[in-house]
Amino acid sequence: MSVIIYNSEVVGVKIIVCNDYNEISKTAADIVAGILKSKPKAVLGLATGSTPVGMYNELAEKNQNKEIDFKDVVTFNLDEYYPISSDNPQSYRYFMNKHLFNKININMENTHILNGMCKDTDIECYNFEKMIEKQGGIDLQILGIGQNGHIGFNEPDVTLNSRTHLTDLTENTIEANSRFFENVSEVPRQALTMGIATILSAKKIILLASGRNKCKAVKELMNSKISTDNPASMLKVHPDVTLICDKEAYSNNRIGVDIGGTEIKFGVLDDSDKLIYKTDIPTNTDSEDELINSIVKKCKEIIDCYYISGIGVGTPGIIKNGLVTAANIPFSNTDLGGKLEELLNLPVKTSNDANCAALAESKCGSGKNVNSMVMISLGTGIGGGLIIDNKIYEGCGKAGEIGHFVIDYDGKKCSCGTKGCWEQYASVSALLKNAEFAAKNNPDSYLAQLYMKKNKLNGIQFFDALKNNCSIAKEVFEDYLGYLSTGIESLINIFDPEMIVLAGGITNAGDDLLMPLIDRISAEIPIEISALKGDAGIVGAALLI
Ligand code: PGA
Predict the structure, then answer these.
(1) Is the overall model pTM greater than 0.70, yes or no?
(2) Spatial contact of 541 and 257, defined as CB atoms under 8 Å apart
(3) Range of the structural domain that residue 213 is part of
(4) Which of 33, 331, 376, 463 has the greatest CB tally within 10 Å of its CB?
(5) Do residues 81 and 188 lie in contact, with contact meaning Cβ atoms separated by under 8 Å?
(6) 148 is known as an active-site residue
(7) Which atom of ligand 1 is nearest to the CA of 214?
(8) What distance in Å separates the CA atoms of residue 223 and residue 173, rounded to the nearest whole number?
(9) Structure confidence by residue, pLDDT tens digits, 406-422
(10) Which pLDDT tens digit goes with each residue over 51-76?
(11) Do residue 241 and residue 264 come from a single domain?
(12) Catalytic residue chosen out of the listed positions 99, 150, 238, 404
């Protein structure tokens, strides 16, 4: 059973999601049949490509069963290669005769396909438009969609020619269509095509999309603004468009990958941004190739179980011009996105892991009702993610490295080579280091008793000491809160965000951390703890797609 969706964001577009290609073909054929029954002299706009073939078979069967009659039907085809002769098996005239016209009782004189051998393309295109006009316009236009969003041969471009015209094919289309030719060099480089205005003049439009390789185009059609970069997006201004697609083309399941120093987390986010699957593997840091191969292997397992439209990856380190360089992971100017895209044959986007977590909080977590927020991730160091106008702010590639703003120019040495970075004072490592030092110097304290169990302290023990009114722990905590709040105040002064979100294991302390911190911050701004906790990285990575 197909599902019908009315997407209020997409004016006029009704979406029918079918289970498979057969159902698409039957559904589309039923719509065409309905029109022919109510208007025997209907004018149809037809499309070629692999997608409408099933619908043509259904229509031929309906015609043979006398359910529909093509005797008085007039057709205009969307496009034709140029130059190409009509007896070339790759010409669209040949295609239409083979897949439809030769199987139905249509009058061949009523079938109009642009002449791929015409001498003057301007005259050919002009006459074609005039003939459509003479027939009273197209009642129903059938369309496929290219992987790059083209309809007919209206390719993404800065300007789109609105009426029937000669056009150059893009590399993407030449590559996609080369499957029908002996080799890519045989694909014509030009074509004659109805323009966007010709298509939009049709009274009704059906857009067919099948298979995972159309998912990106379908998603962009629904989510993107109306733009010449995505010719199909123009259909949104038409009042009667029906997109008939299968689950593979419609599914917006995305994989989010969160690469950490010890484990790589994977998650699947569904159409409504709900996390529907989670798993993890240890991080293989032996070599770049082994690390990438381990990610590819796990993604392939997931792809076998879910229809996936793309993959987002959050990685530690700096990403500049798409190249990743990280300290504890074997990435050095690594084209992580490009490599994964090649190996997995799906769109891949990458961003810094802290940025991903911030994006997740801003879209689905604590910050979902605000447009700007700063996420502060407290751990071994301090990571950060800046969300401005609901988008990650990356600067030239490494914005958000808030752990490295200097609060003491001659202060403690930092791993980055500078002195006095904030994370040397306000990270969890800094807190525990100070707590251990204080415990050693105060052997009678409650904190020291906890410390002596393993000659080290963890966050749970530290907050336990605070709960037990350990005055030494309180002193350390006061000092820590001083540094943490000073840094947060500075961030507020710089970015003036609507919200601060705190993340990292220490936030499990909840109000024991939050309340005394809020007391120290003078600005009236909500400070909240990450709602998505450990899932933020994978959710945010998937949201990149
Ligand atoms: P396809 O082509 O049906 O062969 O996928 C559609 C298009 O490129 O418009």
Answers:
(1) no
(2) yes
(3) 3-166+193-250
(4) 376
(5) yes
(6) yes
(7) 5
(8) 22
(9) 999 999 999 888 999 99
(10) 999 999 999 999 999 999 999 999 99
(11) no
(12) 150
